[in-house]
Amino acid sequence: MARLTLDSVTKRFDDVVAVDGVSVDIEDGEFLVLVGPSGCGKSTTLRMIAGLESISEGDIRLGQTSLSGKRPKERDIAMVFQSYALYPHMTVRENMSFGLEESTDLDDDTIRQKVEDAASMLDIDDLLGRKPDELSGGQQQRVALGRAIVRDPEVFLMDEPLSNLDAKLRAQMRTELQRIQENLDTTTVYVTHDQTEAMTMGDRIAILDGGHLQQVGTPLEVYHKPANRFVAGFIGEPSMNFFEMEVQGDRLVGDDFAYPLSEESRAAVEGSSHVTLGIRPEDVEVVEEGDGRHEFETVVDVVEPMGNENNVYLAFSPEREHSFVATVGGMRSVESGQPVVARFPESAIHLFDAETGAALKNRSLDELESSEPRL
Amino acid sequence: MSSNSGSWSESVNLRRVSVYGVLVVMVAFYLAPLETGLMTAFKTQNAFFSTTPFAPPPADGVTVQPWAAALDRLGPGVVNSLLFAVPATMLSALFGSMAAYGMTNLNWKYQVGVLSLFVAGVFIPYQSVLVPLTRFWSMVDVASLLAFIPPLADRAGLIELGVTHAAYGIPICTVLFRGYYLSLDDEMLEAARLDGASPARIYRKIVLPLSKPMFAVTLIYQFTNIWNDLLFALVLVSDPSNAPVTIALNTLKGSMVQQYNVQMAGAFIAALPTLVIYVLFGEQFAKGVAGET
Fold first, then answer.
1. Which of A46, A306, A310, B194 has a CA that sits 20 to 30 A from residue B204's CA?
2. Inter-chain contact B194–A102, Cβ cutoff 8 Å?
3. Which is nearest to B182 in space by CA: B109, B71, B234, B106?
4. Where does the pLDDT of residue B77 fall: very low under 50, low under 70, confident under 90, or very high at 90 and above?
5. What are the tens digits of pLDDT across the range B153-173?
């Protein structure tokens, strides 16, 4: 077992820089999720770790040994592909034993034993004699996983392994994958574009955009303390609301409203003339009426009922196209066209530099701590 | 509603009748030459002159003698043809498959240049290589090279023919296999690489077993081409004992009397192996043409 180190890894395809100086340390046994929009370089990064792409600059190390220049078969790495990539002419058993036959000197009995152990762990023992086209998508997914597990590698690489499953099965496999990974305690790098998968599965999340690493942190860190505007907008569903504001003394002035700042926030925006104000939908409080400093008259545009909660789209006036989202409880009745007051509590707002996007101030986490049960 | 469905089924019936009518006419059109040939092959010479070609033979004019005569004279030619056509077919398909794998699923420099040579090879007409081909085989004297194995040395003409056809078939087989290999899942081949298999092992264990439908296509195509070839055979085979079936068939055409019944029986005998190949590989052939994996 060993830690996996990415050291300023860069990948160029002709003139295009797909991955630009990415450095991450992945601890032994850690589950790291690489997340980002399509084309952000996350799959390329994974393929460089696997040895399917060469590294233009930088180095990837497993423990103390450099992987660059080593061929895929010498890396002791197993990968699960999005398309599962099963061998269609082989049975499940042959699919799972192929890697052991090709890369080890184990005798047939040992291979059979290992395949059966992995199969029973994944609950596919009774499928061993079947061919991939006789299996459902979920079963194929398990076989693909089994093919990786049976190798007992140093590192698992997973390239959007759940994206071809239907929503219900995906949620189920998410939990199961986590359980398996915890049991095996194998270092895992998991690529996805789905921020829900990233939040729920990872020990840590690495967010990539345009080939640049944006932030690495635990799910709650990146959710509550995003390093920049991109991370803030990418993590969280529905996304954070953003408003472009101009700094005028102790106030932020935007197209639709002005937001008075406390002394602390004012210090944070010192030196910036334009900032982006961000607030998560669940932090927007919808009240009937109010007269506070951070309350604004709005009109309900659209209501999306989710059952447990409602996503309410609010506009500052009925004529304005631009609306923002607030999440309210599912039992609360809100009607389209209804005038309501939206409160942006100052403790919950994020401020980003309008030019660089870097976070100037993140939400305060005092509430988070105080929300723990008090005895 | 019920009257509606009545007229609907009537119109369907009418359509069906016309469709089948057209089909029957087409079947008759395409089968007429075959039927005529078959009938002729079972007629005595006299019956042939006294009846129309496609009419069945009269009771006193039925004979299998033309078949016996044709078989007798074509027998050695059929054996000769099988001796070079079967190995040449298999070799061109196998080498075509290997070349296509190397140029499709592996990455190396100058791949495109080499591939374009193969594609160009598809378009070289038989006639344009006749002279260089005979020059080549007169320089490489197979008979004296294999003189120490007399059975092979005697068959030198067939060996030349086989090697020539195998080489000539490789480009088209490569192009056919390449189309098929382009559709193979890249992730699957990468998975095999990560599983520790070398390129040669990936070909042997993954690509080759998945190529069955394309092998059916190339085997049928190549076998029919090679079996039916007359031009290379005329140029390369000088010893009459090595004459393939196409040359033997030509000798059935007598110089004085035209024995149409013997010629027709001979044509059927000469065509039989290609029909057998179609029947044997038909199912795989359909899969290969449909691009199924």
1. A46
2. no
3. B106
4. confident
5. 778 888 889 999 999 999 999
Structure token pair of residue B194: 């990560």
Q: Strand, coil or helix: what is B244? A: coil
Residues B153, B26 share a domain = no
B72: amino acid identity, one letter: D
Task: Inform me whether the pLDDT recorded for B291 exceeds 70.
Answer: no
Does B183 lie in the same domain as B45? no
CB contact under 8 A, A102 and B206: no
Interface subset of A 83-122, CB within 8 angstroms of B: 83, 85-89, 98-99, 102-104
Q: B140 and B198 in one domain?
A: yes
Task: Tell me how far apart the alpha carbons of residues B220 and B275 are, in angstroms, rounded to a whole number.
Answer: 9
Look at residues B38, B60, B82 and tell me which one is the last residue of a structural domain.
B60
Per the rule left: phi > 0, alpha: psi between -120 and 50, beta: everything else, A156 is beta
B208 in A contact zone (CB under 8 Å): no
Among A118, A2, A12, smallest CA distance to A56 is for: A12
* Domain positions in chain A: 4-230, 238-370
**Interchain CB distance below 8 Å, A52 and B192:** no
Q: Which residues of B fall within a CB distance of 8 Å from A103?
A: 195-196
Question: Does residue A189 sit at the B interface (CB-CB below 8 Å)?
Answer: no
Name chain A contacts of B195, Cβ cutoff 8 Å: 73, 98-99, 102-103, 147, 151
User: Hey, are the CB atoms on A79 and B205 less than 8 Å from each other?
Assistant: no
Residue range of the domain that includes B38: 2-60
What pLDDT does residue B236 have? 84
Is residue B196 a contact partner of residue B254, using CB atoms and an 8 Å limit?
Answer: no
Question: Which CATH entry fits the domain spanning A238-370: 3.10.129.10, 2.40.50.140, 3.30.750.24, 2.40.160.60?
Answer: 2.40.50.140
- A4-230 folds as Rossmann fold (3.40.50)
Instruction: Give a yes or no: residue B66 inside a domain.
Output: no
**Residues B149, A172: Cα–Cα separation, whole Å:** 70
On chain B, the residues whose CB falls within 8 A of the CB of A89 are 206, 209-210
